[in-house]
């Protein structure tokens, strides 16, 4: 075969690595886990040397807590390109080859900054997410209102339960604090407030709508049922700050 054809085949082979690269199966249900690693907020367009430390620690499971890529788009093609960039990260490839992975999203891999239920292409985003993270085709995550999920590993006495709620799919619209001039970026505005000795509210304020929701009713019921299941160690992964140091 001539070198041009060979080059084209090589290129095709490299392209085929893409997001379809095999992923390690999850630990068996009765496996006792002692080393679980987690992380979030990985910009796919930057180098990610952090994976060297993660891989050296040899976790038995890695939990991606959200903002695993920064899609920030309403174009499914751009989503694919950005997932491909994560797939191309050498350290991520090593992690994927050695460690079972589970994942939930936050705003940026749901679709865009601070996005919620009204993000217009969340179904396409769900498709991209679940494909990338190799969700089994018979999983309810493909069809229900939100990609929330939970796992349980280990025998009675050593059972670890990991609950990953979806804090984006059903979330009611945010209400911007009127004191924030939304023409300026929140960071710029907040810094100016601090510099002039003023209080820094927002960027958002309480939504007064009594029907406003974060999880949606079905997910609340699902969460209640998960919390009733027996576990010795319960880990709830929140893509949002739990003890936020700023309001809104
Ligand atoms: Fe986020």
Descriptive notes:
The protein is α/β, with parallel strands linked by helices and 248 residues long. It folds into two domains: 23-171 and 216-236, Purple Acid Phosphatase, chain A, domain 2 (4-Layer Sandwich); 173-212, no CATH class. The chain contains eight helices and eight strands, in the order H-E-H-E-H-H-E-H-H-E-E-E-H-E-H-E. The chain has helices at residues 3-17, 50-57, 76-87, 90-98, 107-110, 122-132, 186-195, 217-228, and strands spanning 36-39, 61-64, 101-103, 149-153, 160-164, 175-176, 204-205, 233-236. The strands form three sheets. The protein has a three-stranded parallel sheet, with no helix packed on it. Strand 4 and strand 5 form a beta hairpin. Helix 2 packs parallel to helix 4 (90-98) and helix 3 runs parallel beside helix 6 (122-132). The protein is globular. Mean pLDDT is 91; it is low at 9-17. Bound molecules: fe (ii) ion. Residues 67, 106-108 line the site of fe (ii) ion (FE2).
Spatial order of the strands forming the largest sheet: 1-2-3
CATH architect. name of the largest domain: 4-Layer Sandwich
Query: In what range is the share of β-strand residues?
Result: 5-15%
CATH topology of the largest domain: Purple Acid Phosphatase, chain A, domain 2
Instruction: Specify the CATH homologous superfamily of the largest domain.
Output: Alkaline phosphatase D (PhoD)
Poorly predicted ranges: 9-17
Rg over CA atoms, rounded to whole Å, is: 20 Å
The averaged pLDDT comes out at 91
| Number of helical regions | 8
CATH class of the largest domain: Alpha Beta
**Bound ligands, named by name, code or SMILES:** fe (ii) ion
**Overall shape:** globular
Helical proportion, percent range: 25-40%
Instruction: Report how far the terminal alpha carbons are from each other.
Output: 62 Å
Structural class: alpha/beta
What is the N-to-C succession of helices and strands?
Answer: HEHEHHEHHEEEHEHE
């Amino acid at each position: 075969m001539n070198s041009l054809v060979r080059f084209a085949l090589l290129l095709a082979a490299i392209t085929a690595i893409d997001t379809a690269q095999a992923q390690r199966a999850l630990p068996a249900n009765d496996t006792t886990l002692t080393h679980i690693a987690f992380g979030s907020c990985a910009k796919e367009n930057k180098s990610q040397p952090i994976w060297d430390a993660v891989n050296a620690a040899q976790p038995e499971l890695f939990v991606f807590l959200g903002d695993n890529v920064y899609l920030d788009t309403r174009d499914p093609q751009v989503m694919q390109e950005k997932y491909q960039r994560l797939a191309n990260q050498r350290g991520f490839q090593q992690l994927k080859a050695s460690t079972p992975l589970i994942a939930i999203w936050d705003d940026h891999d749901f679709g865009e900054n601070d996005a919620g239920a009204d993000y217009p292409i969340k179904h396409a985003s769900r498709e991209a997410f679940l494909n990338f993270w190799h969700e089994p085709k018979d999983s309810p995550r493909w069809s229900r209102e939100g990609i929330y999920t939970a796992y349980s590993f280990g025998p009675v006495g050593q059972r670890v339960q990991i609950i990953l709620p979806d804090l984006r799919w059903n979330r009611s619209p945010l209400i911007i604090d009127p004191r924030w001039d939304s023409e300026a970026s929140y960071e710029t505005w907040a810094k100016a407030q601090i510099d002039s000795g003023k209080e820094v509210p927002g960027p958002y304020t309480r939504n007064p709508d009594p029907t406003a929701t974060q999880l949606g009713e079905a997910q609340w019921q699902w969460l209640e049922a998960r919390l009733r299941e027996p576990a010795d160690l319960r880990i709830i992964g929140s893509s949002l700050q739990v003890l936020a140091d700023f309001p809104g």
